[in-house]
Amino acid sequence: MFSGFRVSPLRHLAVAAAMLSGMGFLSPASAATVTAKRAVVLGDSLAAQMCGGDQQAIPTRTAKLIDVGCYGWPGATTTELRAYVDNASYRSAWTGMGAPNARFNLRQAIAAADVLILSLSTNDAKRDTVLYDTGRWPTGDGPWPYNHVPVDNGWFNQQIDWWMQQAQGKPVVWFDIGCRTNDSLFLYAAMHRDDVLRNAMSRWPNLRVVYWGGEISAHPEYLKDEVHMTQAGLDARWRLAVEFANK
C-alpha cells in the first residue's frame, strides 16, 4: 500500500514516543527532566568544605540537589550544632567553633528540605580523646583516659535520635568518620561512633549511612591531612551525597 515510501529512523522514534505518551507510559516532562531533591547540608569543617567555605552553598554542578541550605562550621559536634538549631543565639564555649551566619535559620532550612545531609561525629570522636573540664564541655561517651575502654552511656544514640526526629521521616544521609591517623585513641573513638551510627539504622529506616571510612581506606588520596579532603575527596563526597540522597 505504501510501496516506495520510506520513513527515517528519527521519524520512527518520534512516532514511538508519541504512542507511549498516549498510552501513559511516557510524558514529555518525565522524559526530559528528573525531579531534584531539596537538600540541606549541615555539619563540621567537612561540611564547610562541601559548602565552599564562606560561600555556604551546594555547588551548582550538583544538578540533582536544590540548595535549601549548606552550613558547616569547624569544630561542630552533634550536640553543639543541635544547640544552634534550638537557639540561634547559642554560642559554643569552644572558641574553635564559629557561629552560624545570622541570616540562616537552621530549623526552617531542615523543615523546607526533602533530604537532610549530615557531616557530624568526627569532632565528637575528637572530643572523646581530650581530657577536659566537664563543666565547660558537652557530656558524651567520654572523655576517656588513655588506655581506658569507654562505657557507652547512650549519649550518642540520644543525639542521633534527636537529629532523626528533626527530619520527621524524611531521608537523612549521614557520613561516618573517615580518617588517616596514627592516634590510636582517636581511631578507637571513631570506630565506636561509627558502630553506634550504623546500629541506629535498625531503628531509623530513613537513615542512610555513607561509609566514608571505607572510601578513605580505598582512596587515601582523598585526604590532605587527618580528616580534611583533597579536591578528589571533595568530588567523591558530593558524588556519594547525591547518590544516597536520591536512593
Structural key phrases:
5-stranded parallel sheet; 247 residues; single chain; alpha/beta; 10 helices; 5 strands; 40% helix; disordered N terminus
Could you characterize what this model shows?
This protein has 247 residues and is an alpha/beta fold. It has two domains: 1-33, no CATH class; 35-245, Rossmann fold (3-Layer(aba) Sandwich). It has helices at residues 9-22, 28-32, 45-50, 78-86, 106-112, 122-128, 155-167, 184-199, 212-218, 231-245, and strands at 37-43, 65-72, 115-119, 172-175, 207-210. A five-stranded parallel sheet has the order 2-1-3-4-5, with helices on both faces. Helix 6 (122-128) packs across helix 8. The longest helix has 16 residues, at 184-199. The chain is globular, with a radius of gyration of 23 Å.
CATH class value of the largest domain: Alpha Beta
Could you give the count of β-strands? 5
- Between the first and last Cα atoms, what is the distance in angstroms? 50 Å
Question: What integer is the average pLDDT?
Answer: 78
Total domains: 2
By CATH, the superfamily of the largest domain comes out as SGNH hydrolase
Q: Low-confidence stretches at least 5 residues in length (pLDDT < 50)?
A: 1-32, 132-149
Main β-sheet description: 5 strands, parallel
Name given to the CATH architecture of the largest domain: 3-Layer(aba) Sandwich
Order of neighbouring strands in the sheet with most strands: 2-1-3-4-5
User: What proportion of the residues is helical, as a percent range?
Assistant: 40-55%
Radius of gyration: 23 Å
Strand fraction equals 5-15%
CATH topology grouping of the largest domain: Rossmann fold
| SSE string, helices as H and strands as E | HHEHEHHEHHEHEHH
Q: Count of helices?
A: 10
- Class of secondary structure makeup: alpha/beta
Estimate the global geometry from the Cα principal axes: globular
Oligomer: single chain
